[in-house]
Design brief:
This protein is of the alpha+beta class. The chain folds into five domains: 4-59, Homeodomain-like (Arc Repressor Mutant, subunit A, Orthogonal Bundle); 65-192, Tetracycline Repressor, domain 2; 208-288, 2-Layer Sandwich (Alpha-Beta Plaits), CATH 3.30.70; 297-374, no CATH class; 386-547, 3-Layer(aba) Sandwich (Aminopeptidase). It contains 21 helices and 15 strands. The strands form three sheets. An eight-stranded mixed beta sheet has the order 8-9-10-11-12-13-15-14, sandwiched between helices. It has a four-stranded antiparallel beta sheet with strand order 2-3-1-4, with helices on one face. It has a three-stranded antiparallel beta sheet with strand order 5-7-6, covered by helices on one side. The chain is elongated and about 105 Å long.
Length: 555
């Protein structure tokens, strides 16, 4: 005769298999005995009846991740703020709703109305979870983290209903939100249960640094809502930076420290509950230092070591990686890659894996690179291009483009006539299809801008590597644009001269220009450079190529 422990183990395993295949109603002593090859009377002596066997099967199921989370929170209420428990539990329930309950548990609850035995079994199964949920709610009220007017029984009942409902609805749901939308909703529900004053409560250990970016509506209460949501997680804000308003929105950067058990998903949910496009990454203890002090320290370091400007610029905007590359190498600017013109022949690439760069961050990094040139530059480097040129009856300034020029470049295009834009792009919409910050310098090669006496950008010159060029003949494609009101003053001539002056410094030996065959002004401008052009006309476009003289330093 088998040992009682062996009978118990074999019978429970067999019954569990029957329950998985056919449900709790089919899980009987007779079916389990047949499945395990045991005598039914042995199982009856061990379990008493069918319900006893079913209870043994369900009792042997390991608790779900959500049940474990709530149990830990109930046992140690000083480790996780209640809002964090709610959002984390909701996140895990949403991610794997059916794993939170065994199939037998759900079936017992569904069939409980007409079956007193199954109803009692279901009550026993959820009793522990209910007690843990109530303990978390009661601890939250005692610590001041939950509005004391919230009935703990009502909150406990809501929590259990949410858990069971998700598990039942998930297999047949026809509409399913994104997880970030769900987490944001759970955060809003949690915030509605928080005390109004929000300053009372338990003091949690806060030692985990995070960096957070989120886009908020440019409204007076938007920032306070974000800070309130983060505060409900008992996080401390150690640094806060706000971008300038664009299209009714503002980007906000927050450095914070949080309780170690508050996950990044929960912090992200708090941000998403108040804004959009939220990103989070691990922070640094250095984040708590004042931003002005850190910037001045970086500037001091720059004075002593200007060659470290790319690293200092990367640190200023939280880049993960920094590269210094030839102006013609690497990739063009992308949301997570910031390309900056440092000198005529060298660019800086900043990479960030956790979120895209903002326009404000581009301006900051560019400004620091310019500071490195102002305090001494790099040995043996020709320095950034910058000239003051005389044109007919006026003075213009020509320099390397900067990220902050994007809006001014767009304004210049808007001031240009359709004819002028068409002659530059062979299309009326092409310039709008190009990312403006790339057009203003975030590409391989170089971009020059022409500034008038009143500080407006009135001309743009681009030098791009020609993708069709022979590798043995490094060729730059050149193109320029001067707005209509400033044409005929010689601006195009001096701009083209400066473009051809810096092109050899980037390693190019040849240039190519694509010009509409009827654009006599541009054809005449190219002919006046003194280069020996070879011209081929194809489909109304003159493709002009020439060899460049040896490079000379800009002056």
């Amino acid at each position: 005769m088998p040992d009682d422990a062996v009978v118990h183990e074999q019978a429970v395993a067999a019954a569990a298999e029957v329950m998985r295949r056919e449900g709790i109603g089919a899980t009987t002593l007779a079916r389990a005995a047949a499945e395990a090859g045991l005598r039914e009377r042995l199982l009856r002596r061990e379990f008493g009846d069918d319900d006893g066997l079913r209870a043994a099967v369900l009792a042997g199921r390991p608790p779900s991740e959500v049940a474990d989370l709530v149990a830990r929170a109930a046992a140690a209420p000083d480790r996780m703020p209640p809002l964090s428990v709610l959002v984390e539990a909701g996140h895990r329930l949403f991610a794997a709703p059916q794993q939170s309950w065994a199939d037998g548990d759900l079936e017992a609850m569904v069939r409980a109305r007409g079956n007193p035995e199954l109803a009692e079994l279901a009550r026993e199964r959820i009793a522990t979870r209910t007690a843990n949920a109530r303990a978390v709610a009661e601890a939250a009220i005692r610590s001041g983290q939950l509005d004391p007017h919230v009935a703990t029984d009502a909150l406990t009942h809501f929590s259990m209903a949410l858990s069971v409902g998700l598990a039942l609805v998930d297999p047949v749901a026809t509409v399913r939100p994104r997880v970030t939308e769900w987490d944001a909703l759970m955060t809003r529900i949690g915030l509605a249960l928080a005390p109004h004053r929000g300053e009372e409560g338990h003091d949690y250990d806060v030692s985990a640094p995070w960096r957070l970016r989120v886009t908020l509506s440019d409204r007076p209460a938007a920032l306070s809502r974000l800070v309130g949501a983060l505060g409900a997680l008992h996080t401390y804000t150690v640094d806060l930076r706000i971008d300038e308003a664009r299209d009714g929105e503002r980007g906000v950067y927050v450095a914070l420290v949080a309780p170690p058990d508050v996950s990044p998903d929960v912090i992200l949910a708090a941000a998403q509950s108040t804004g959009t496009d939220a990103y989070i990454t691990v922070g640094s203890p250095d984040d708590a230092r004042d931003i002005l002090t850190r910037t001045l320290d970086g500037a001091t370091r720059l004075v002593r070591h200007p060659e470290e400007a790319p690293l200092i610029a990367g640190a200023l905007v939280g880049a993960d990686r920094t590269e210094v590359i030839d102006a013609t190498e690497g990739i063009d600017e992308q949301p997570n890659v910031l390309r900056l013109q440092w000198t005529t022949d060298r660019h800086v690439l900043l990479h960030r894996d956790w979120g895209p760069f903002t326009a404000t961050e581009q301006v900051r990094a560019s400004a620091l690179l310019r500071l490195s040139a102002a305090v001494g530059g790099i040995p043996d480097d020709p320095g950034p291009a910058g000239w003051i040129d005389q044109v007919r009856g006026d003075t213009v300034w020509i320099r390397l483009a900067r990220p902050e020029d994007a809006d001014a470049v767009a304004a210049m295009h808007d001031r240009c006539s359709e004819r002028t834009r068409y002659q530059r792009y062979f299309s009326l919409q092409a310039w709008r299809d190009v990312q403006l910050r790339r057009l203003a310098g975030g590409h391989r090669g170089a971009t020059l801008v022409v500034m008038s006496r009143d500080g407006r950008i009135v001309g743009l010159g681009n030098v791009f590597p020609d993708p069709d060029a022979d590798a043995e003949l490094p060729t730059a494609e050149i193109a320029l644009l001067v707005e209509d009101a400033h044409q005929g003053q010689g601006i195009g001539r001096v701009l083209l001269r400066r473009m051809l002056q810096i092109t050899p410094l980037m390693g190019f030996t040849h240039v190519v220009a694509h010009v509409l065959a009827d654009n006599r002004g541009m054809l005449h401008l190219l002919d006046g450079t003194g280069l020996s052009w070879t011209t081929r006309v194809q489909e109304g476009v003159a493709v002009m190529r020439a060899e460049l003289p040896r490079p000379s330093a800009p002056g």
